[in-house]
Target: Carboxypeptidase regulatory-like domain-containing protein
Amino acid sequence: MKKLCVALSLLIVFALGSIAFTNIKLGGIVGKITPSDAASGVSLVAATDTLKAQISQGVFTFTNLKEGVYTVVVKANAPYKDAVIEKVAVKDSATTDLGEIKLLQ
Model:
């Protein structure tokens, strides 16, 4: 009887654990910087956390983001000016496309 209770308890714990993590759906942010060689880096800020993305031919991508509101910071090469895009919303399982980000001189 004791073994049966332990086995049922473990089964319940594993079942609840597998259900708890299946509801997490992640989104992303993409964008294109023009001119393509004007930026040296792109960062994503959420509260106290900061992520960096690689830029390839002006295109950047952030993936595996939780639903929320973020700030995108583009660090520009001289003579261009940095760009900040605030209040970028990410929804569950959706990728937010920022389109073309034109850096000014």
